[in-house]
Amino acid sequence: MYTRRIVPATLAVMTLLAVAVRAAHEEVWVTTDRTVDCSSLKTIVGDVIKEDMNDEQKCIALFNCFRRLVFHRMNTRDSRDPIKLFNILGYTLCGSQGTVNCALLREAGIECRVVCVPGHTFYEAKYDGDWHTFDTM
After folding, report:
1. Three-point CA angle 44, 45, 46, nearest 5°
2. What share of the chain in percent tops pLDDT 70?
3. What is the Cα Rg of the chain in Å?
4. Dihedral sign from CA coordinates of 59, 60, 66, 69
5. Which residue of 14, 37, 97, 122 is 20 to 30 Å from 135, comparing CA positions?
6. In terms of pLDDT, which residue wins out, 4 or 129?
7. Distance separating alpha carbons of residues 82 and 41, to the nearest angstrom
8. In whole angstroms, what is the distance from residue 4 CA to residue 37 CA?
9. How far apart are CA 71 and CA 120, in angstroms?
10. Nearest Cα to 74, choosing from 88, 86, 90?
């Protein structure tokens, strides 16, 4: 019976190759043509907003996207991190919702602000010379 002996140098090369392949796959991000790429704020905004949209349409499109991806539930330590919110958690409360939506709007080039009233938080976007209220709750 023939047995093949693996020499230490070959084993070292195989180990390095395995590490390199694993490291390369850690950067893989799978998406489709029918979903929003939630790997960054830039990709989210790029997938949701179309070139011919005005600022109001952009705000509504980002609002609707957020409503499809996130539901109302408790905050966690990572609730205000948009990438973790969309890809891992899927839930947060009003304050974090306003903060994340403002981050999306700023990425889209729209002025916005988080508004806090006793017991609730929402956000406003400025377009057409005026502030417009959005509440994802």
Report:
1. 90
2. 79
3. 22
4. negative
5. 37
6. 129
7. 7
8. 47
9. 16
10. 90
Instruction: Provide the 10 A C-beta neighbour count for residue 81.
Output: 18
- Continuous segment of H or E residues that includes residue 116: strand 111-117
User: Minimal CA–CA distance to 124: which of 75, 79, 71, 63?
Assistant: 63
pTM of the model: 0.77
Question: What single DSSP character describes residue 42?
Answer: H
pLDDT digits (tens, 9 = 90+) for 45-99: 999 999 999 999 999 999 999 999 999 889 888 888 999 999 989 999 999 999 9
pLDDT digits over 10-58, tens only? 656 666 666 665 655 566 667 777 889 999 999 999 999 999 999 999 9
Phi first, then psi, for residue 122 (nearest 5°) are: -145, -170
CA distance 32 to 55: 26
Would you mind telling me the total number of residues written for the chain in this entry? 137
- The amino acid occupying position 48 is V
